[in-house]
Amino acid sequence: MSNAISPEKVARPGVGLAFFLPVLGRDAKVELFKSVPLFVGCSKAELRELARNADEVDLREGYVLVREGRPGREFFVLVDGRVQVTAKDRKLAELTGGDWFGEIALLTKVPRTATVTATSAVRALVLTDRSFRRVVETMPSIALKVLASVGDRLAADAKS
Known about the structure:
The protein has 160 residues and is an alpha+beta fold. The chain has five helices and nine strands, in the order βααββββββαββαα. The protein has helices at residues 26-34, 44-52, 103-107, 129-138, 141-159; strands at residues 18-19, 55-59, 64-66, 74-80, 82-87, 90-96, 100-101, 115-118, 122-128. α1 (26-34) packs across α2 (44-52). The longest helix has 19 residues, at 141-159.
């Protein structure tokens, strides 16, 4: 069983897991993606394509967005709310609006390295690995820019 946000997790009255309620305009989505270091080299057209392929979701407090050890299939950019990141039952970080996580899922098929749980109501943009691949097939230049960003990050990590 995957931890993907899927139609069966869409809220029904009285259930309240997750629901899709588009509120952000295209420009707001572009600005959120622009703030993600992974996409720093992308043009406005490339960012618009990423934004067009991202879904907005609203999640309740306590919802587990990703679970450590499970397959990763989504990348998240938090719009509003707070999440806690844990690994091996240790708190690693707390993320808020503008923060992002799950980039490894866009690039590889390795299991999630942490669990991320909503500590408040959360609104997020979600880009699935399938949507990301579709965007890259349409605009291959994105792949080179993302790889350059990953390379820069690995080089910085190696120095520290």
